[in-house]
Structures
1.
Amino acid sequence: MFSKEVYSARRKALLGLMAEKGAKGLAIFVGNGESAQNYPDNCYKFRQDSSFLYFWGIDEPYWAATLDLETGQETLYADDVDIDDIIWMGPQESVASKALGAGVSATASYSDFDKAVSSARASERDIHFLPASRYFNAVKIASLLSLDPRRLFSEGKKGCPLASEALVRSVISLRLVKDEQEIALIDRACNLGYKMHETARKGIRPGVCEQEIVGRMEGVTLSEGWGTSFATILTQHGEIFHCHSHEALIEPGRLLVVDAGAESNDHYASDHTRTYPTSGKFTTRQREIYQIVCDCNELAFRLTAPGVRYRDVHLAVARHMLDCLSGLGLVRGDVGEMVAAGVAGLFMPHGLGHNMGMDVHDMEDFGENLVGYDDDQTRSAQLGLGSLRMARTLVPGNVVTDEPGIYFIPDLIESWKRDGIAKDFVNYSKLGEYYGFGGIRLEDDVLVTSDGARRLGDRRLPISPDEVESAMKED
Amino acid sequence: MFSKEVYSARRKALLGLMAEKGAKGLAIFVGNGESAQNYPDNCYKFRQDSSFLYFWGIDEPYWAATLDLETGQETLYADDVDIDDIIWMGPQESVASKALGAGVSATASYSDFDKAVSSARASERDIHFLPASRYFNAVKIASLLSLDPRRLFSEGKKGCPLASEALVRSVISLRLVKDEQEIALIDRACNLGYKMHETARKGIRPGVCEQEIVGRMEGVTLSEGWGTSFATILTQHGEIFHCHSHEALIEPGRLLVVDAGAESNDHYASDHTRTYPTSGKFTTRQREIYQIVCDCNELAFRLTAPGVRYRDVHLAVARHMLDCLSGLGLVRGDVGEMVAAGVAGLFMPHGLGHNMGMDVHDMEDFGENLVGYDDDQTRSAQLGLGSLRMARTLVPGNVVTDEPGIYFIPDLIESWKRDGIAKDFVNYSKLGEYYGFGGIRLEDDVLVTSDGARRLGDRRLPISPDEVESAMKED
């Protein structure tokens, strides 16, 4: 994917950051193994660990690497194939040759990795590892270091206490800032995401099964890319965030939320959301709410720039949203007080966006707080703002999503109403009229540039109500 | 999927089989968790453990079950959702209600499963479990029983020594024989597989990238089914069995092997292989070899019947293949002696077929020998026959694949030639002319009926050379 000089430079930068933190010993990297679909020999499509790809560039199962923080020695571990393997897998490039492509001249067998770690452990050297992304890696590290594999994953937002915080922080500071070549690859992933969404939009017609559309759009990503960057959300229940059921038939007059992304063959992600009126035309009420979300998306984009905290962009969006909802009579009172009280969370119980790169939620296996928050930032406990995954001060090269939404979630509204939450601000009786509404979310992928921001991908998916209706008419 | 009576009957049958074997104690079943794609919260499409689906019918992550072999008590363990979950996942049916759908009236929390197993262990009761299909299940069982998770998988063909052989054998004897409803579901999966293959065939044109065809055909399976039943093989290097690279452009005059299957939304598999001339017409040499494979496929189908050992069908195919290759001057000598010497393995280094059901290689996580061999059968060490996954005496309700193939694998041929293997039988100098040929495989899914066999699916994919050429002309 990248030249060997790029991988070498990344590892050199990592060594520098670790040295700044006074870290010594051995940094270890366990690449992914195959992941069983229904039995160990029948696997899901192979996906390498993102940090392994970033530093070592090897996109194959059963590789590992060590980086000696004191000597700078870099070693890749994997097994060459024998004649039996050649029959099944065809002639293969040697491990040594693949390693050279990543700028690494020292290689050893896969089992030598275990020996290298055991030997470092026996010499009481520090062993730095990242939180596990999968059980495979957890079991491997746990067996080498005599730990419980279940404790090697991040514990929710706060990360994994057993992993090396120095290594985690160093990797985050490198991967959070994308270079030009990475940005070009994300642009390409977004172009594939565009095609995927266009395919979806053209398939929307009352009577069609949601799954049929999902299959067709995922086929597009598989034809040109690795697959989807996350499980496609395509639902007329936009108010249910993790609705992965696609059994329903498209009904007229509804709103269809399509939140989907492609992962390119180079393993960079796209992530876009559009919301469509299933009949091709918004109703007046749908258009009113849609326009608010659309304006919030635009506002966030305009505010996104180096030096700005993304938390403040989230709050500006919350303010604008409440201001508009006030105009519709759904909330009332001082907007500043409503923002402070977290009233926006009733309508948008998620954050404005997240980091994106090789992972659609970039590096989230490290723990959301370390990835998305500056050291002086404390995560809010409020609904919505508390779910914000990216709060940091933006720097050029950051890639974030801009994804405001408004949802009417009957269970949530009823729960707030019952508990008297924000009862002075929220017009609960009027909200009752919106119970069958569903939800709207509009999401773009945004690069922070030297003087502002740029939406990624060559073309932007239709987004204004008029653009959407006109695109659906042409489809 | 099935009625609660079906699930209850399956568990009752399992209890009966375990009692016959004198097994006591507690049988435990760990359903699958989510499986991380690139980080724990970004998962591959959920696939339940097949045996869990078979006995308990629950197609959701993080369920477990116990079956008391002495009292017959059946319990399902899972957690109901709270208000936070409802916001993200929408209102959910209760655990108790889902369990009733599988005919189970006793439910408890997911953590109660751990308690039930620990308590049985404390009382020194036997705990019966199946080999792990994934690391998730391995880690869970290992932690409950203080075992090394890596030892809970089958060790190659012989199974997992720590798992319960009584349970494994009982489950195999049930799942190997499909009932009418299962057969109807496999027919439907095969119909979806038909569409998938038809889509592939229509896409074959010189200059097209293999990945483009793969994506389009996989889109078909996702539109109507769960996805692919295994990683699609679509390659002009048919001689490389596990070629999962799809970067090449279709070249004229080549052979394209398409080995692909669909998994239905009910989680039954299809598995078909066809081999196409990339230019739409076979060359004379291609047609000669193709016709042999096609005849072998037909021969195997005609021989498939209750009471017949599938190992013998494999050997009959080997005999016919060598007889035909002898006619082409590629081998020479007594056909019986060649079969006995394993010469067929040079051309077909795999078995004739395997069991198929919910898993495309049904139950292969239990170890191939227990699944595919009768107790009085010993697995051959020969190339080809030694890879035969299904050797058993056939009974009505068995579903097997019929997939002969002929490949010219330069590395393998050179290795035999160098070692002087079968030098009296093989015409190595003539074989040299076939080094760029590639390979041909033709595969159908076959049900063993009361008096013979039936190919599954409503329609058979074009298979004779004329049928294939004429279908490609129409495409």
Note: The radius of gyration of chain B is 24 Å.
2.
Amino acid sequence: MEMKKVRIGLLGAGRIGKLHGENLAHAVPEAALYAVADPFMNDATRAWAADMGIEKCYSDPEKIFSDPTIDAVFICSSTNTHADFILRAAQAGKHIFCEKPIDTDLGKIEEALAAAKKAGVKLQVGFVRRFDHNHKMVHDTVASGRLGKPNIVKVTSRDPDHQSMDYIKVSGGIFLDMTIHDFDMVRYLAGSEVTEVTAYGAALSGAGYEQYGDVDTAIVMMKFENGALGVIDNSRAAHYGYDQRTEVHCDKGCVQVANDLNDMSMISSADGVEIAKPTWFFLERYNNAFIAEAKAFVHAVLTDTETPVTGFDGLQPVKIAMAAAKSLQEHRPVLLSEIG
Amino acid sequence: MEMKKVRIGLLGAGRIGKLHGENLAHAVPEAALYAVADPFMNDATRAWAADMGIEKCYSDPEKIFSDPTIDAVFICSSTNTHADFILRAAQAGKHIFCEKPIDTDLGKIEEALAAAKKAGVKLQVGFVRRFDHNHKMVHDTVASGRLGKPNIVKVTSRDPDHQSMDYIKVSGGIFLDMTIHDFDMVRYLAGSEVTEVTAYGAALSGAGYEQYGDVDTAIVMMKFENGALGVIDNSRAAHYGYDQRTEVHCDKGCVQVANDLNDMSMISSADGVEIAKPTWFFLERYNNAFIAEAKAFVHAVLTDTETPVTGFDGLQPVKIAMAAAKSLQEHRPVLLSEIG
Amino acid sequence: MEMKKVRIGLLGAGRIGKLHGENLAHAVPEAALYAVADPFMNDATRAWAADMGIEKCYSDPEKIFSDPTIDAVFICSSTNTHADFILRAAQAGKHIFCEKPIDTDLGKIEEALAAAKKAGVKLQVGFVRRFDHNHKMVHDTVASGRLGKPNIVKVTSRDPDHQSMDYIKVSGGIFLDMTIHDFDMVRYLAGSEVTEVTAYGAALSGAGYEQYGDVDTAIVMMKFENGALGVIDNSRAAHYGYDQRTEVHCDKGCVQVANDLNDMSMISSADGVEIAKPTWFFLERYNNAFIAEAKAFVHAVLTDTETPVTGFDGLQPVKIAMAAAKSLQEHRPVLLSEIG
Amino acid sequence: MEMKKVRIGLLGAGRIGKLHGENLAHAVPEAALYAVADPFMNDATRAWAADMGIEKCYSDPEKIFSDPTIDAVFICSSTNTHADFILRAAQAGKHIFCEKPIDTDLGKIEEALAAAKKAGVKLQVGFVRRFDHNHKMVHDTVASGRLGKPNIVKVTSRDPDHQSMDYIKVSGGIFLDMTIHDFDMVRYLAGSEVTEVTAYGAALSGAGYEQYGDVDTAIVMMKFENGALGVIDNSRAAHYGYDQRTEVHCDKGCVQVANDLNDMSMISSADGVEIAKPTWFFLERYNNAFIAEAKAFVHAVLTDTETPVTGFDGLQPVKIAMAAAKSLQEHRPVLLSEIG
């Protein structure tokens, strides 16, 4: 490929679309962000696009798919459009970065993956946490083999505060909405596939999750093909900030990461000793990870190499989430092979 | 009770017996360690006893039970004698400190508890970790209510190295031998009873646990009466030292404790940054906790108040361990009510 | 002032000039980086400027001073040009951000400050560390008064590795080249002026500082007008990374900050426990501080308020550095009032 | 020497005497604490002695010096008796552990050291901090040479709260009373002798130190024979607890220790994140160090080897303290060679 920069069309200019847009414009030198399409295209978005140096603003995504000068698309639109946009981009021969989840229907995911594969285009799914310096350090240490084989994979993942019940109502439940990131993380850290899960969950906060059949607190145990065991604990509300810790205990030792903090201060007085809180939420914690993720996609396109988070990596966490939901409902261990 | 010091007879002068004996002799001012009985009484033990200021050395424990000047016994003999010694001490009207576990047979435990209750003597079971400054801090913070109700109770508990297979063969399995301390800990931290457990386990080390139907790695999820969820992860071999961390996530925040370290050093060079390892094993980590435990027992006797770890506290972890073993074997969640 | 964005000309496109240029272009929304002048203007710099959206590239700085559309300049050229450029910018009525030091001649500094004052333009000097989240936390805690008055102000400041002897030869000595940042920092943290310094220094590394009358290791004690005492320790070579810690001990307690680390990992094995190194050098450590600094300048211009680091703040550290050099040479405490 | 245990007479049964007595009785197996002498011998002390297994209680120290069965003395009496008791013990051929300082008169110290040397008895001075696990780790790392030569030796040493003014009045001033421990520490850590000091001091607390010509806050810089520089900062009042940190920056890296904490907890909520305070004061922080110190003395006696803290080690910190006081008074650097 004789390309110096990857020419990109952005699909969706909501919060996550703008985040990716700003990173592509300012922090990914090998990306040329050329066009944006959003069904609600308006003056504010056009002004933002101008600031980003984006030349074309559309409300119709087809304008992007049909533009032969565009090399790749960033699918940041609403979840229900992801699979269709993958199909369409694949047909148009464009490389694809798609936000998670691809879809919540396994058939549609598999159809989209097949289309991308057939078209020979790159596909990367937005599991951004893999690009966090902390979690990556855990992964790299395990992958190096210096600690031997993984025995226990642990993920603590707690959001700083409740989502609105309006959001929860349509979220698909904690496992598909929130734990899905952790299901990707355990696969990434263990270097192995999940074969079975058992999930416990409870609505403890009084915020009302139970009225939508959902929970605000969950623990999921899992088994991996390589024999390791895993566990994730989730809470919808850790009022001290975003609690995102990972740990892998191996044959010869353990690697773990603490949260990034707002600063490295310690204030000591007769009243006690205070240190800084964890960074507030994903925008603060994974800021640099979003940049690294976009760079990795652009790099894969430019060098014609495999993306670091494949379509298959987009499919598996959905399956695990479905198995966890089934486990919670049926109150028993559920094999991944029972899903789909 | 008009007593200035509690006059104590020590039953068993093995490793744990000598540990308690030294603490009673040197670190518990209100204890008067008067006699010791051990079936293998010999010159070395007599010399040790002399150093401790112990006046009487016996091979026959009956000499202690029948001595009307002795107020209380410390049962530190082999596990299979615990229940009988409790019965005998209760008959003799002596207060009882008993090392864990009371027994591995629920009927014998209940018989021993009934005897102590009927005799009106104090009974304290040796779950020493409750007296550790770290875990106590977690407990006290939760119990204070300042963080609201507990949602997630987490215990990481890993031994520094494998036991011999000769030991493992007769250990009763990981849940009764090792996790039993963690089952006590989760009850202590949650301030609530376990109602259900699901256990995962694996023999990953190659050390041979599987030949005795045992595992070296385990994760146990549990539910509590108060609605909280819990999880314990265990490994028989964390070669960096004794890994004993606890954490409770509550409505309004989270309290957690890291390991005690050998020192507070940091050595920085081009090669990296090193800090100290965790203290090696339970003798190093729980040294002060053993003293606090003995003081608490003596205090309960002198003030005629409830011991901080009761006979019931000795019974429940055995039941939970049995439920965990059943869960692992039958590959399903097991209710505590199914046990005993 | 009816201005939506501050239109900026950049003077100097070396390493620090490009750093500011990229921040102004990408991370300071209210800045419009319009022109750059560099005596060595070439194609590479023009290409960089194009990437940054800079419209005009000059080799003659006068093109910037004489452009009436330009509101402010960033002086990032070599130190010997700073004072002249401030004079020229002041004459042209442009607001001024100037990299440190303004000059190493007190007379020239005072002339420049007077010119800026007379012209009524903003002047901010590039003591970037004030904008670091860590040091700012120390400052803000002290300034809040919650810990009472400052008693001891401590700064540890060590570079990761030696500069070349070619650099050292013309650097002006450790106090003017390196400690000058720390002299600004102690004033910032103490909220008070330095009145006296005593300096110790030594060339211990064998790298050859002594042949230029310089040292690689220094400790400077100081007194402040408010009665507090201070101390700075410096090393040219801390091979583990950039060591930048500050601490203020006050009447009622102490606030201190540790270094930012590359990540929050801990790797534990039989070999020991490793944590991450501090970030490597100022580009890594003060990356966000450079952005905050530029934003603060632009904000002061737009709101017509005092800059957070004034011309006087640029002058004082030079005086303190001169006093420290005199103290080291004359082996005695030196009053600030002896300087200039 | 054919001795299984060292038979010890304790001189002085105040707070520090009782501390050593309890350690010798309970924690130093090779010590036999046989007698105690105190001018204020009373029933309470006799009861304490009985608890410790001490056979003889005297008000006259001569009873101890003249008892040929006693091998060694622990001098824990008031400072003004130390030098005389050393002389007397040396004459009587008894090994000597002496609390710091030996005296505040250099001539008397030298006379005492000469007597001990002539008599060929062991002499150890009570600089207990050398036996702290943290500071020892710094020392051992430096002494190992793995980080190259020491460049900067730093000691932070702050007491938790003010002493009474009655105490301060007769304390001899901050350098002889408090910093003397730090002067020993820097020699220990640097592995080299102090050649010069410059001291800054201030009375900032309002507690009244200035009325006795004393200060509550001090910073002392020093030079070492090996070329290294050093700095100590002191405060009489760090209300968060005993602040005792040491650090040595070397050619190839840095070793530092943080304070021991009451526990390893972290409590996170919307209000902030709290960790434990440092241990309160020297009894808490140096508890184990006192035991290690006594063991080291007994070991030196039993093995006829040099004590780890010699008479010379007792002399030097007094000289450094005098030089620091002179520096503060005369407002100039003072050479150690100017003292005595």
Note: The interface with chain D takes residues 238-241, 243, 266, 268-270, 272-278 of chain A (CB under 8 Å).
